[in-house]
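Saturday, quiet lab. Running sequence design on the structure tokens for the scaffold JK sent over.
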């Protein structure tokens, strides 16, 4: 089946920001990095030099071996040798990890909590007693073991960490659990490791002399601290894209293979995380070299320029808007699900806001639909009983309880927390949501197995405590489906409000245009996707940034620091009707 309306896919899978001012600053490969570090060390003119290699969690053992082999220190110390025992750490993190297979509690632990003070002081004394030579201190929390003459930060995006969990290559922080089930490693990282390491990163990274991209352990890249922060600051003053990643799923479809030019031999692609800065990467180009860094670093170090002052003071250094694709074209239904209410997610999981969301229909096939809200006059206790029975019988008549709505391209379905929902087969959904993406309570998964051959966990107990039973057919139709309102129009363009619901903090606007249309950020970061048209160009009338080209289905971010920008059709789309969907935080 052909989904792409153009002659070829122009979706860019590896977007980057060109950092021209530091184009010669990036070292590639261990030999070049070691040479640069040695030059720097010699320039210090000291008989004793302490090099600290501070690491984000899930850095592979290969990196450690390379550091020792290339730097050839006379002495080296590993931070894990100063940590508490694995049993002590396991007990310490248990209240946050819990016994639940999916959910935990956002930790309040700090990196210092993972260390044994007696071991820490003993190693610090050993280092202090060494009179000369190069000393290498490496690992997560290495900065606690000594005062650095040269400080390096080895970084890595969370998506890469997940891939390493799946390959059984790395362990969690303070653990030796490479062989543990990847989903359990991910859960521990989500609720503990990443929170702890991010908090420490915010303190340490600005003090570093160099930053290393460790995604490719055989060909790492290193830049100076000045080049790193210049690249980030340059990014938050221009439109940009993060690096999307794609993943298969038990319900996955075929649309993204064609439109996003993916591996045609893959069985399916279910998700595309097109704008999830907590997990996506950002590519900075230095000359001919692409340096990969977690895009969440933008939020950590330039939150006000990126998010806007009001959004930052409301959400802190988190990116509150998420855009992702859900592809069920020639696939299956998503799980029937509900997201937690704000009070519930805060009390039970330590998260301050919940996953309100919406489905914007990018494309639809034959008999495509979404499940949304309840049918009239259902009996909640009967439905819950039927769901629990289905865990054993693998049979549940969803259409007896849940309303089913036909969909067509450019429909928009609003899904405030507490609303039962799922996309059906043969739909291509752009999911626009608040960011806490892990908190989905699956109620029914259609009796199928996950990709690992094991049924996916069902969360009826959590789900029934959050379901809003009064969201029945009439209410859903009136409040959640195609809430389009004309806001403004001009020569060759019009702007429509499409949601989200008043319960949700995200506002969405759709612009239809065949000519130039002006946008205003209005104090909030803007996230947009080109939902109609082959390509557009984003420009500044005041030349605040270089013109930025966007292709069909690409999500892009306009930082709040850009007060005004314009968009017009570009290339083969000139003179043709295009459309963007834009999300921002209601101020």
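Result came back. Writing it out in full:
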């Amino acid at each position: 089946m052909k989904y792409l309306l153009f002659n070829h896919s122009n979706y860019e899978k590896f977007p980057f920001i060109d950092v021209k001012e530091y184009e010669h600053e990036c070292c590639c490969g261990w030999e070049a990095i070691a040479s640069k570090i040695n030059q720097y060390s010699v320039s210090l003119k000291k008989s004793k030099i302490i090099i600290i290699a501070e690491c984000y969690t899930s850095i592979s053992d290969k990196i450690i071996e390379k550091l020792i082999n290339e730097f050839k220190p006379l002495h080296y110390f590993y931070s894990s040798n100063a940590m508490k025992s694995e049993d002590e750490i396991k007990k310490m993190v248990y209240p946050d990890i819990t016994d639940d297979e999916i959910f935990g509690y956002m930790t309040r632990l700090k990196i210092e909590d993972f260390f044994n003070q007696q071991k820490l002081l003993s190693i610090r004394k050993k280092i202090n007693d060494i009179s000369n030579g190069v000393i290498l201190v490496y690992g997560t929390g290495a900065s606690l073991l000594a005062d650095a003459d040269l400080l390096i930060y080895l970084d890595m995006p969370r998506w890469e960490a997940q891939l390493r969990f799946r390959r059984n290559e790395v362990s969690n922080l303070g653990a030796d659990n490479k062989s543990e089930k990847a989903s359990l490693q991910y859960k521990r990282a989500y609720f503990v490791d990443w929170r702890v390491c991010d908090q420490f990163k915010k303190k340490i990274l600005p003090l570093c002399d160099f930053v290393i991209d460790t995604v490719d352990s055989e060909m790492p890249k290193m830049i100076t601290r000045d080049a790193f922060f210049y690249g980030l600051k340059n990014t938050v003053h221009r439109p940009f894209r993060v690096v999307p990643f794609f993943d298969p799923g038990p319900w996955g479809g075929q649309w993204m293979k064609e439109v996003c030019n993916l591996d045609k031999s893959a069985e399916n692609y279910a998700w595309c995380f097109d704008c999830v800065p907590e997990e996506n990467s950002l590519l900075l180009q230095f000359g001919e070299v692409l340096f990969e860094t977690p895009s969440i670093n933008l939020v950590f170090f330039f939150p006000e320029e990126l998010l806007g002052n009001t959004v930052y003071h409301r959400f802190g250094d988190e990116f509150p808007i998420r855009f992702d694709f859900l592809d069920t074209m020639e696939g299956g239904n998503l799980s029937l699900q509900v997201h937690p209410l704000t009070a519930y997610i805060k009390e039970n999981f330590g998260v301050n806001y919940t996953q309100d969301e919406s489905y914007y229909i990018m494309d639809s096939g034959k008999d495509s639909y979404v499940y949304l809200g309840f049918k009239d006059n259902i009996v909640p206790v009967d439905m819950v009983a039927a769901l629990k029975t289905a865990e054993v019988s693998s049979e549940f008549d969803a259409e007896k309880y849940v309303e089913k709505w036909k969909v067509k391209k450019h429909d928009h379905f609003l899904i405030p927390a507490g609303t039962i929902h799922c996309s059906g087969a043969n739909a291509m959904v752009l999911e626009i949501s608040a960011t806490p993406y892990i908190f989905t309570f699956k109620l029914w998964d259609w009796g199928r197995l996950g990709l690992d051959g094991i049924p996916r966990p069902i969360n009826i107990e959590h789900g029934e405590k959050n379901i809003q039973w009064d969201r029945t057919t009439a209410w859903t139709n009136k409040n959640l489906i195609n809430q389009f309102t004309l806001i403004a129009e001009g020569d060759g363009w019009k702007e429509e409000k499409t949601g989200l619901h008043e319960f949700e903090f995200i506002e969405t606007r759709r612009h239809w245009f065949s000519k130039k249309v002006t946008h205003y950020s209005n104090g909030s970061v803007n996230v947009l996707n080109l939902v109609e048209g082959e390509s557009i160009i984003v420009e500044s009338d005041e030349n605040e940034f270089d013109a930025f080209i966007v292709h069909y289905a690409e999500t892009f971010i306009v930082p709040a620091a850009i007060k005004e920008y314009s968009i017009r059709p570009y290339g083969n789309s000139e003179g043709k009707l295009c459309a963007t969907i834009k999300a921002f935080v209601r101020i």
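Notes for JK: The CA atoms of residues 192 and 499 lie 34 Å apart. The domain at 485-585 is CATH 2.60.120.10 (Jelly Rolls). Ask whether to fix the surface positions before the next round.
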